[in-house]
Structures are given as structure tokens and as C-alpha cells.
From TrEMBL:
It comes from Beggiatoa leptomitoformis. The keyword Hydrolase does not apply. GO terms for cellular component: membrane. Residues 257-373 form the NfeD integral membrane domain. The chain crosses the membrane at residues 249-271, 278-296, 302-319, 350-373. This is Nodulation protein NfeD.
């Protein structure tokens, strides 16, 4: 009995650290399931950085993306290249793709894997912004005859393609993958299915799901930071790493449609605060919205000409409220719509502002300023009720008329007055002029009253 008790105590103290070690050596599962944005890069880079201190055995990055921003992609790739923990990029589930930026991440990973019925490729860089295709520059090549002429757009496109090609080929050389096809993916927008990618040595293996992937990775050797490591994947639990609240907030704020709305809400909030000082709430919310919009714009491909048109349009529409002319309001709406369309300086569809959102806000702005014009026209036709002009035509009563001093009662006030005709005490009078505190009045006859 005593020996059995000692055995239990022995097992408790010596097996507990082993279970803790196994829990620490988990396999982390990260996910990219949309366009690659600064929020995506923040999520992946933070997770890989934290994994270095958590003694993680392996990081599996599942990919299903149409592509994304070059800077965000390069941040992710740099984090993978300096990682001391093997990173497996896995195009999953069936029907997923690793297009454009996803192809680069796949090439950069220590192990590249794909599910059946997936594809990768189309890695040609997309032009951000528009160039003036009419502007030509002469490129002189001393080895060629005759002299060749290329547009600025063609020259910039060639630079982008050459840079992307060299980058992907360097990753292919690092991971000993097919560099020839990598060049085709960049220059010809070539794509491959999972089966073709495995045959062409673009990926390392195919797996139907995560469990099948880990089974096939067991015992596989991989080079990490110059050292060969043998993967042990059977005894480690899988831990799903979801984006934290910071990543989620960054993902929401950097959505082009949300950033666009934040900018407009901020501008209108500050405008209403300045037009009605003391409201406080519009100014506070507007200031917060503007700062969040500026934060989003610094990581998004923004066309500053488009932003300038939006600001000009809002300024015109605001001026319409103070100086109704219809022209300012119409010009403001036109500038606002054109600026909104031009705001995102990219041809990538997932970074474009929704046309429905632009049209809806333009319609709301148009209706608002039609209402402003209507109200201003109504105000102009209403009689004057305050100021010196409001006294003209006012009806009063003569209170006293002694020794050429005339006093009348008008608008519940006693006034000194002078008359153009004789006036009797108690007689009704009408104001026809005012000079300072002296009114000029005329008597109202019975026929006039009728």
C-alpha cells in the first residue's frame, strides 16, 4: 500500500511537467481567408513573433486569398524568413486559391502544401494608380537600332514586373522550388492547379485536410535559418490562433468603405460643431472619426487628388448653405462624386469603394442641399420681423400730441414721432420711416383700415 502511494506521488510530480511541455509545444494554426491588407500583415507578424517565445513546434498558415497589397505581403514574407519555427503554408480548403500575393507567401514558406481542387499563380503586379499614357519619353539604347520609344506607364510597369520577378525567383532559389515557373507566374500571369504545382516542383506536397497534412509532415526534414530540423507533428495538439481585438479593429478601420465613411462623418461632425459652437458631441465624434480615417489612409493606396476633390466638394456644399446659389451645391456634388471614385489609387476590386455607397451618399447630399435651397427661397419671401426695417409699415396709436411733440405707441413701445399730416390723440397711425429713435408716421383713415 505504501509503495503504491509513492508511485502515485512520483507520477504526479514527474508526469505533470511532461504534459505542460507538450501543451507548450503546440502546432499553431493561422488563417488568411480574404485579401491581404495591413490588418492581415499585423495579425500574421504578431502571431509569428509571439510563437518564437512560446516554444511552438510548427506554424500552419492556411491560405485562401485573391491577393493584396505589396507592402503587407512583404511584411508577412519577412516574418516567415526570419522565423526560427518552420512555417507551412497550406492552400485550403478545396476551392481555395493562393493568387497574386498568396503565391509569393507560398514560395517563401518552409513547406508549401495544397488541397485538391485549389490553385495558385497570377502573380503579375497590378498597377496602383493611373499614369498619363499620352506622355512619352525617349529611351535611348546604345546597343539597339533604331531608338525605341516607351511611355512612362510602360516603363514603370516593366520596373514593377522585373522587381516582382526577381523577388519571387529569389524565394524560389531559397526554398529550392521551380524558378522558371515563378517567372511565368509574374510575367505571363500563369496559374497552376494543385496537381500541376506538385508535378512542377512548385509545392512540396498535397493533403486533403489538416490531419492528413500533419501526418505527411511527420519526420520530414526542413531547413530553418540554415539548420536542418526534423518535424515531429504527431504528438502536438493544434491551437487555433484567431485575430485579437486589435487586428479586428484594424481590419474594420482599413476597409476602404469604412475609412471613406469615417472621413465623411468626421468632416461633417467638425462642420456642424463649427457652425453651432457648444454642441460638443459632433465635434468630439468628428475628431475621432477623422483620426481613424487618417490612420486607415496611411496604410491604404490613396489618391490625394481624389481626396482633394472630396474636400473641395464638401466645401462647396457647405458654402451653398450660407450663400445659396445652386451652382455651388451642384459643383460640390459633382466634385464629391468624382473624388470618391478616384479616392482609392488601385485597380484591385477588393480595395475599391462601393459604387452603391458613393451613389447613396451623393443622393443624400443632393437632397439635403435641395432642401437648403428651398428653405432659403422661403425665407427670402417672408416679411421682415426684426431690425429697423421691421418698423416700416407697422401700425400704432397716437398717445399724445401737445405743442408739436408727438408720441406714438408701436410694437408695445413708446416712440417720439413726427407726422406728415395732422394727427389727433387716439388716432391710428402707420410708420413710414425711421431715423434713429424718431419715427415718421401718417394717419390711418377709416377707409385705409377697410
Amino acid at each position: 500500500m505504501y509503495n503504491r502511494f509513492l508511485a502515485i506521488i512520483f507520477s504526479f510530480f514527474f508526469l505533470l511537467p511532461i504534459s505542460e511541455a507538450e501543451e507548450q509545444s503546440a502546432i499553431w494554426l493561422l488563417t488568411i481567408d480574404s485579401a491581404i491588407t495591413p490588418a492581415t500583415a499585423d495579425y500574421i507578424v504578431q502571431a509569428l513573433t509571439k510563437a518564437q517565445t512560446e516554444n511552438v513546434a510548427l506554424v500552419v498558415l492556411t491560405i485562401d486569398t485573391p491577393g493584396g497589397l505589396d507592402l503587407a505581403m512583404r511584411e508577412i514574407i519577412q516574418a516567415i524568413l526570419v522565423s526560427a519555427i518552420p512555417v507551412v503554408s497550406y492552400v485550403h480548403p478545396a476551392g481555395a486559391r493562393a493568387a497574386s500575393a498568396g503565391t509569393y507567401i507560398l514560395y517563401a514558406s518552409h513547406i508549401a502544401a495544397m488541397s485538391p481542387a485549389t490553385n495558385l499563380g497570377a502573380a503579375t503586379p497590378v498597377q496602383l494608380g493611373e499614369l498619363d499614357n499620352k506622355t512619352k519619353q525617349v529611351v535611348i539604347d546604345t546597343t539597339a537600332t533604331p531608338t525605341t520609344t516607351k511611355s512612362n506607364a510602360d516603363t514603370l510597369h516593366d520596373k514593377m514586373v522585373n522587381d516582382a520577378d526577381a523577388y519571387l525567383q529569389s524565394l524560389a532559389a531559397l526554398r529550392e522550388r521551380n524558378a522558371i515557373w515563378a517567372s511565368k507566374a509574374v510575367r505571363e500571369s500563369a496559374s497552376l492547379s494543385a496537381e500541376e504545382a506538385l508535378k512542377e516542383n512548385v509545392i512540396d506536397l498535397m493533403a486533403t485536410d489538416i490531419n492528413d497534412l500533419l501526418k505527411k509532415l511527420q519526420g520530414r526534414e526542413v531547413k530553418v535559418l540554415g539548420e536542418v530540423k526534423k518535424l515531429e507533428t504527431e504528438q502536438h495538439p493544434i491551437k487555433i490562433i484567431d485575430p485579437n481585438w486589435r487586428n479586428q479593429l484594424l481590419s474594420i478601420v482599413t476597409n476602404p468603405n469604412i475609412a471613406y465613411l469615417l472621413m465623411l462623418l468626421g468632416i461633417y461632425g467638425v462642420f456642424f460643431e463649427l457652425s453651432s459652437p457648444g454642441s460638443v458631441l459632433p465635434g468630439v465624434l468628428g475628431g475621432i472619426a477623422i483620426l481613424l480615417a487618417l490612420f486607415a489612409f496611411q496604410v491604404l493606396p490613396i489618391n490625394y487628388a481624389g481626396m482633394g476633390l472630396i474636400l473641395l466638394g464638401i466645401a462647396f456644399m457647405a458654402a451653398e448653405a450660407f450663400f445659396p446659389s445652386f451652382i455651388l451645391g451642384l459643383g460640390g456634388v459633382v466634385a464629391f462624386v468624382m473624388g470618391s471614385i478616384m479616392l482609392m489609387d488601385t485597380d484591385l476590386p477588393y480595395f475599391a469603394i462601393s459604387p452603391a455607397l458613393i451613389g447613396g451618399l451623393a443622393l443624400v447630399s443632393t437632397l439635403f442641399f435641395i432642401w437648403v435651397i428651398k428653405m432659403s427661397l422661403q425665407i427670402r419671401t417672408q416679411p421682415i420681423i426684426t431690425g429697423q426695417e421691421a418698423m416700416i409699415g407697422a401700425i400704432g396709436e397716437c398717445i399724445s400730441h401737445q405743442q408739436e411733440q408727438l408720441r406714438v405707441f408701436v410694437h408695445s413701445e413708446m416712440w417720439n414721432a413726427q407726422a406728415t399730416q395732422p394727427i389727433q390723440q387716439g388716432q391710428a397711425v402707420r410708420v413710414i420711416a425711421r431715423k434713429g429713435l424718431l419715427l415718421t408716421v401718417e394717419p390711418i383713415n377709416i377707409t385705409d383700415n377697410k
